[in-house]
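I am still getting used to backbone structure tokens and would like to learn alongside you. Label the sequence line and the structure token line clearly, so we can match residues to local backbone shapes. Go ahead whenever you are ready, and we will take it from there:
>
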Amino acid sequence: MLTKPSKDMSASKQFMVALFFFWAIALLGLILRLVPIYPLGIEYSHFLHAHSHVAFLGWLHGAFVAIISGIFLKDKLQTKKFKWIYWFTIANIAGMYISFPIQGYKLFSILFLSLFLIGTYFYIYYFFKHKTDVEKYPVTYLFIKAGLYLQLLSSISPWTLGIIIAKLGKESPFYKFDIFYYLHFQYNGWFLFATIGLVLYLLENRNIHLPHKQTNRLYKYLLLAVFLGYFSNILWAKPGIIFNALSLIGAGYEIKAFFVLLLLFKPYYKYLRHWISGFSYVMLNIILLTFMLKVVLQFMGSFQYYADLSYQIRDFIIGYLHLIMLGIFTPFLLVLAKELGYIQWSKTAFYIFYSGFLLTETLIFLRAILSWFNIPTDSGWLNSLIFLFTLWMFTGISMIVIPNLKIYSSAVES
């Protein structure tokens, strides 16, 4: 049964806007999956730009910002300055959603992206100036702070991309280096650190004082993993054995961080099932297993053979990115937002969304593996199945998003 969201309408309102962008990118994803079956006369790459940019900035960035603002800013969310910063960034995300499909990576889409980045700089400044409850949630804040700084680092990429295109062209390896740099410091940096911080928030919110030695070790290992792990993204260019070594060391630190996280949670894990709903508890375990799979794949990608393979077969990259975005960050945000009372959704809706994700992932990796072993197959039926399961996933997302938007609208009107 769906119920009204929490009274903290400012933070929940932000999450609701992010949730709408989640539905909007799912719609674009459905269109992209239809194109191989039935050409729609659209520029595929333009729609792909819109899908990826709004997925990162409108949905994931927006959802993380909503939750961390609700924790650390609270009453500061009602100021005119914050509202101006927030709606300025939202307007530019909407601009990207419209402009990218029309013109691709050109004047207006670049302008909206640039203005969005400026808006995030204002937000980060505002966050650090007005933050509260740092003493209450010190470990949560430590990881959120690192995530925001890593977001700043990732933003170097869009500023330099235009220069690289103008001077070196899109065929230059530096163009792809720049793209992968942005992706890496977003999902392995900002989003991952925000996720870890909010996972630890589940403990600190229960007045648990986490051991400094272990949390400090987790923090250092993850930082080393994100900086050294970037080199796995450039191995396809065969830059030299030293970069393979650095990438492998980075993957090793991520493995160590994973086990430190497990040890950190171990003393409190039996209590966690009493602090959150049974369904949320099960999903957190599944997300943890998915994170373990991500760690293994990251480790494999440090070896030249697998780095070359993933670069040559695009489905491996697509499957890997969707595994992280739809298998780790998205279900975690949906579960946490429900626990916080920002949104509600039925288990049926979530099952439809998540089963659609699992089925499409299976087929994408199957298609990649068939290509890897040069096994001939009729891509038509695979594309059709992927589209049908994407439609199934979109149905689940719609069943999550639309009722919440209706509830929020009725709450605002009353």
Summary: Residues 1-9 have pLDDT under 50 and may be disordered.
